[in-house]
Amino acid sequence: MKNDNLSSTPLLERTMVSGLHNFLMNLIPESITYNIPILDIGCGTGAWLERLANAGFKNLYGIDNDIEQLQTKKATCWQANIDSDDLGFGNKKFGLITSIEVIEHLENPGRFFQHLSGLLAPEGYLLITTPNLNSVLCRLRLLLTGNLRQFDQKGEPTHIYPVFMTPLNRILQNYNLKIVYKCTYPLKGSITSRPSLKMMSSLLSLILQDELPGDILCLLIQKISVKAVN
User: Fold this and answer.
1) To 10 degrees, the CA torsion angle through 167, 18, 50, 31?
2) How far apart are CA 125 and CA 29, in angstroms?
3) Which residue has the higher pLDDT, 2 or 45?
């Protein structure tokens, strides 16, 4: 995993939990060298692309539905709607595609992964993040309120697709994609939940497995060959 030597970035990082971009730098596989093409989907202000550029990556691209918010000059970026558009890359392939807190906003996740599988080079990687719904805390909240965290009335109103592991794996199989590493940020629990819920979930964790306890689900996904699938 590559390390990020930067302590901060000047551009606004639009993430649910601060520090996520810095954490994600450690999840980039060592096989992703500095000249390999990297695409960020939903690049926003360009803060993540700027961080990648400052860490030494040179072949950077980004797309976003609202390109007017873009502030970085260290990547080639243009406007595209991942839910519906031809993204305009032709035959270009990427060794790494990142998509930070995007999938939960999409109407058509199947089309999203179809796009990404087509854009990934053989054995290329996809790094995505989304609100974590797999923790004991989230399961407890659903039991008590009947609502999913971050997808209820108090959550971001554009959150429309909650990610659960079993249906996600079924979608990925359709496009020769496989999760090779998963974790959460933070690694050891929520920093955004109410203290009372955190206390109750800590007690439940003594008897229930809490493999993914943090606020943000982080998934490293790899494109696998057709031969490997067969």
Assistant:
1) -50
2) 8
3) 45
